[in-house]
Amino acid sequence: MMLQFDQQFFEEETRDGFCISAMMKRAWAVELEVLSQVGAVCKKYGIPYYAVYGSLLGAVRHKGYIPWDDDIDIALKREDYIRLLKLLPEELPEGYFVNSYYTCETHQQPWASVVNTKYILQDAEKIKEFWGCPYVCGIDIFPIDFLPADEQADDVYMNMYGIVFAVAQRYEEYKASGELNQYLLQIEQLSGVTLNDDGTLRRQLLLLADKIAGLYHEEECTELTMITSRLNRRNRAFKFPKEWFDKTVDMPFENITIPVPEEFHRALTVFYGEDYMTPVRGGGEHEYPFYKRQQQFLDDNHIILPKERT
Predict the structure, then answer these.
(1) In the chain, what is the greatest distance between 2 CA atoms, to the nearest angstrom?
(2) What digits encode the pLDDT tens for the residues 38-67?
(3) Taking a C-beta distance cutoff of 8 angstroms, is the pair 246, 263 a contact?
(4) 222-254 pLDDT, tens per residue?
(5) How far apart are CA 213 and CA 79, in angstroms?
(6) 76 φ/ψ angles, rounded to the nearest 5 degrees
(7) In this structure, what are the phi and psi dihedrals at residue 70, rounded to the nearest 5 degrees?
């Protein structure tokens, strides 16, 4: 059974001085439904997960979405993350789609996502099923990795991951400039892995970076991180004692609950600093609303959805 919402939930609303449109409310509902479906799979198989980033902050500060946020972020420890990605394609409702290195050969992000549909909905009944929202909506799922205690080993670990990930991300640029081969040779020497020039080099690099990220295991480490954030922020202090994530606490999030790390206050200071309870609008990593480009595609191709027809 899908989530239930009062009709009032879908009305335009102003929170903290920010206007949330009726369509964004519908998109929120779809994301919450996707989260509930993923959460049900986690519960079925005893897999713990945690709200992170803006979703963690929203749960603690707003008991739901940050008003100007439009996505949901959860994270799992690496072994649980891999296990979940193997389970989801068979466990999720028909039509759902799992984007990850392990379920989609064209995927390029170092985290996974689950969406309610692979394509913009154009069937009236399906649009109605998802509360009048035709857009592809979902959640992001991040892996949590463990860090070596030795500072030198940590440097090697981060540098190796950074090199492989950067070459994968800038693959076409390096190929065009003629620098690619020298980088590939360097990577082979550093990793001891032979890369095959069979047309899948970029995918091999992405998978190798992911393998490097998961080199260390919980029993041998005392700290953990989300490695891409640690890399992109250029902040080696972006890490957490692993015991902060030993247990979860369920917190209200709109009309459901979401698990957060037991030491969520401490975790939030690492994510956002000591003053995380003070709202700061903006600063997101993607344009708002997330479905803007989907609507632009519909407009550019003169596609009129069933609910719009007269």
Answers:
(1) 67
(2) 999 999 999 999 999 999 999 999 999 999
(3) no
(4) 999 999 999 999 899 999 999 999 999 999 999
(5) 12
(6) -135, 150
(7) -140, 20
